[in-house]
Amino acid sequence: MKHSHDPVPDWARHGIAYEVFVDSFAVGKVSIDGKRDLYRDPVYDQEPFTLRWHETSDDYRRGHGFYGGDLAGITYAVDHYLNDLRVKILYLTPIFKGASNHKYDTLDYYAIDPQFGTLEDFHALVEACNRQGMKLILDGSFNHTSSEHEWMQKAVAGDPRYLDYYRRDEHGLIEHWEAAEHIPVLNHENPEVRRYFYESDDSVLLYWLKQGAHGWRLDVAERLGETVLRNIRRQMKAHFPDALLAGEAVETYGADWLKDGLLDATMNYVFKGITTNFFIGTLTGGQYMEQLERIIREFPWEKLQACWNLVSSHDTNRMLYDVGGDEALFKMAVVFQFTFPGIPMIYYGDELGIEFGEKEISNRTAMDWESIEVHRKFNRGYRVAPMGWEKLDRYNSYHEFHRHMIRLRYHYQVLRDGLFLPVYADDTAIAYARVLEEKMALVIANRGEGRTLSLTLPQELLRPGATWKCEYGTDEPLKLDGPRLDFPAEAHNTYLFLTA
After folding, report:
1. DSSP per residue over 239-276, as a string?
2. For 6-38, how does the pLDDT look when each residue is reduced to its tens digit (9 = 90+)?
3. Fewest beta carbons within 10 Å, which of 90, 180, 356, 473?
4. Of these residues, 199, 219, 264, 302, which one is catalytic?
């Protein structure tokens, strides 16, 4: 196990995180019909389209369809929904002025996109988060801008000063992220770019922390490189030592960016990838366990505790989509999400079992507020007919399951701080434990056919007089009479046992 010498904020290692895709989450002020004039689309050279709240469209993935979510809607949810879920870390996709629905093609880093509201709306959101004890994390696209950004417009016009604001290839042509012509890549070797984003006292980085944000999640952090990340961290921690610096790392192994002086945490796409592959059957239990153990070996422990364990996100399929809508497999994956070291990060709607979920096509569809009876006031004008009770019961089943897992996470410290111990693995089943002094947890999962698993328990679990309670999977308590445990595991089930 590796350790970090970087101080990681204590609050970042012990809460529940929740991701919001802003345009799709909640309408608080004005419905989409009342702000159509705010939606422009210079990038795609066509009229943007707006969607009824529960519509989906393949074109939405291109970034030029809009649902109309805003900051005021999120603020209301903080006080009337997210606080009830006991969310402590609220992560928003970019809120700054941009041409698309996702805003990763930013036009102005100092301005709230008018589709989402105003600076006053942002301050109201900060106040709500502070009132509910939540930390607000903003998403910064510091690697690239929109092609409509004023710098890029001047560069295209031939201004040599602004040409140097962007990276160029060996032919002198401006580079673009993933060859997307509307997303040119910034040149952080240019001191003016560095000052704008993080090296000055009025930089983008510090401005929004001064406005009340509690940290940043950096988009494509790995493409910024170590030198830029070190400079960002140094500047941020000098002014806001308790702020969080998290980042996206997809193309490389997440642990590479958690070295001393770099990120506090990553969105744990390693966990997401291997967990998905285990539950769809492309990894055996043994292979999955090997990868879980690699995370434990290579991620610095203090930073691993702050990494966001996700099973869905705005950049991936939803887990429920990956497992073909199988509720049992989805809930098994969520048990892993809540019991593996790190912070569980719920992607909005997963806690309701939202069925749409294909990457960048339907995984960003509108939040289904009608699924919870008490929150019918959210976006009620977008539904033609009320949800039937059968569907409402299904959604509430997912919701209550998540509430139960959240309660366990807060109640049992071993699930937050306990060391990880591998116990068992075969083709379709695994078991692992968490141990913290006298407190213990044991997770047994079987995604295959029902059968008896023969486990050899580590000595750390053989505590005389320990009383084990099952908090998920069965009503039967666990009785350990020695290191051998023959456990009858039902098909598609996970069992979570904890000591009092």
Report:
1. H-TT-EEEE---SS-GGGG-STTS-SEEEEHHHHHHHH
2. 999 999 999 999 999 999 998 887 666 666 666
3. 180
4. 219
Strand partners, 435: 419, 440
Instruction: Using alpha carbons only, give the angle 174, 177, 178 rounded to the nearest 5 degrees.
Output: 120
At 101 the pLDDT is: 87
Nearest residue to 445 via CA among 242, 292, 244, 243: 292
Indicate if 222 belongs to the active site: no
Percent of the chain with pLDDT over 70: 87
Nearest CA-CA partner of 67 in 364, 317, 361, 351: 364
pLDDT in tens, 68-90: 899 999 999 999 899 999 999 99
Catalytic residue among 248, 264, 315, 368: 248
Q: Residue 157 — φ and ψ, nearest 5°?
A: -75, -5
Residue 150: count of CB within 10 angstroms of its CB: 12
Tell me what the mean pLDDT of segment 468-496 comes to.
Answer: 95
- Quote the tokens at residue 290: 């090997």
Tens of pLDDT, residues 170-213: 888 889 977 677 899 999 999 999 999 999 999 999 999 999 99
Strand partners, 138: 216
* Cα separation, 124 vs 199, whole angstroms: 28
Cβ-contact 214, 243 below 8 angstroms: yes
Angle at which helix 269-279 crosses helix 327-339, to 10 degrees, equals 150
Residue 231: how many other CB atoms lie within 10 Å:
18
Backbone φ and ψ of 418, nearest 5°: -70, 145
pLDDT of res. 385: 40
Reduced DSSP (H G I as helix, E B as strand, rest coil) percent helix, strand, coil of the chain, to 5: 40, 20, 40
C-beta of residue 159 within 8 angstroms of C-beta of residue 166: no
Phi and psi of 273, rounded to 5°? Answer: -65, -50
CA 349 to chain centre: 12
Buried b / exposed e over 445-457, threshold 16 CB at 10 Å, is bbbeeeeebebeb
Q: Tens digits of per-residue pLDDT, 120-143? A: 999 999 999 999 999 999 999 999
Which residue type sits at 317? N
**Helix locations, 183-306, DSSP H:** 191-194, 204-210, 221-239, 269-279, 285-298, 301-304
**C-alpha–C-alpha distance, residues 200 and 224, integer Å:** 18
Structural domains of the chain, with CATH = 10-142+188-411 (3.20.20.80), 417-499 (2.60.40.1180)
Alpha carbons 376 and 306: distance in angstroms, whole number: 34
Amino acid at 468: W
Tell me whether residue 368 is one of the annotated catalytic residues: no
